[in-house]
Amino acid sequence: MLAHTSTKLNLKHLKNKKAMALSDCIQCWDTPCTCGWDYKDWDGKTLSKHIADITQYRTKKEAEFIISWAASYVRNHKNWTDKPKE
Fold this sequence. Notes:
Layout: H1 44-53, H2 60-76
């Protein structure tokens, strides 16, 4: 039998430390973020590298197709604006 533990949390050890959230993104609540909010401050080079990295387990032809398709999606998406989302 398990010993009874208190349900009250002692958070003193988290003072002045960044605590892990239940999800990564404060906008979409997905882990990892699927709406882009967590990446909005990334520079273009870093974001491009990340996109390339997540396709590394595909063939080069598949990866190029996925990236090309994503560019087409950006060009044709109705809700895209020239202003960053806040």
